[in-house]
Amino acid sequence: MLKFNIRKNLFIVNNFKLSHSSSYFSPLLDLAIEAALIADDVISQIYSRKFISTSLKKDGSFLSEADLKANEAIVNKLNLSNLPVFSEECVVPFKERREWDRYWLIDPLDGTKDFLGKIDEFTVNIALIEKGFPIIGVVSAPAKKKIWYAEKNKGAWKSQNGVAERINADANWPEQTSMFISRFHNSPACNKFALLNNIKNQVTLGSSLKIVSIASGEGEFYPRFSGSSEWDIAASHIILQEAGGFIKDISGRDLIYNKENILNPFFIAWRGQIHWDMLNIPDEII
Fold it and tell me: Can you tell me the distance from the alpha carbon of 13 to that of 9, in angstroms, rounded to the nearest whole number?
């Protein structure tokens, strides 16, 4: 398994000098990264097979053996923190979690359809939620050998091949802006949003890669005007926020977590340089 130590990496990469001590990041972020990398190994082994065992959930979505085995590996590792875990594959009733001030929120395999279709755009999402908001986020892309991570008030980072760099969503925009759309969950209102906001390019991308790509400055917008759940976006939410980007519901309000209904409201993620009141929202979704 790939060994990853944030503290060591941050001091050697791109001659970036940190003025803080080696304890800059919380040990909980180390734990989340290790959990993600263990899950990466599990998922990659299954991904290499010609046949992958699958079933259907009650809502009609796919469930693969990779979802279940990655979930088990992540939960086993995160249990070392003695914090509760809420997973897409292990849903906890609201009456039990409503009193949780701090807990892990995970999607062990985001983009199962991409995974089963041999499209390399699936991720592992791990977030630490505190009082309704993510404070730590880790998103790994096993097939791409990339990992993004962030901790509240400590910036956002991307690592590939063991080399980490700080990412910035607040960089200058290109002349022609780009918008990420979902391969399987796009809606006509997204096309209207692009037209209203003079967005020239639409890029199809899977899983939480859409939001972390915005955090990395690789695109400007991701409107989501169809259903999604808290575990789909919590980890990438804090990564985007720490990189200088934004994510709001269609009324301009912050997203909150650990709701009784774990479905997200429609939302828009975008990187810096513009304010909410500069965006034009399609009338049909307001």
Answer: 6
CA atoms within 13 A on the CB side of 129: 27
Question: Do the beta carbons of residue 142 and residue 43 sit within 8 Å?
Answer: yes
User: In the chain, where are the structural domains located?
Assistant: 6-166, 178-285
- The per-residue pLDDT for 249 is 97
Judging by beta carbons within 10 Å of its beta carbon (0-12, 13-18, 19+), is residue 140 exposed, middle or buried?
buried
User: What global pTM score does this model have?
Assistant: 0.92
What CATH class does 178-285 carry?
alpha beta
Going through 131-207 in order, the beta strands assigned E by DSSP cover 133-141, 146-151, 156-160, 163-166, 178-181, 201-204
Instruction: Please name the residues in contact with 91: beta carbons below 8 A apart, sequence gap of 6 or more.
Output: 262
Contact indicator for 46, 134 with CB cutoff of 8 Å: no
215, 148 in Cβ contact below 8 A? yes
Question: How many whole angstroms separate alpha carbon 223 and alpha carbon 21?
Answer: 38
pLDDT in tens, 125-172: 999 999 999 999 999 999 999 999 999 999 999 998 878 899 999 877
CATH architecture of 6-166: 2-Layer Sandwich (3.30)
Alpha carbons 239 and 242: distance in angstroms, whole number: 5
Residue 202 CB burial class (10 angstroms; 0-12, 13-18, ≥19): middle
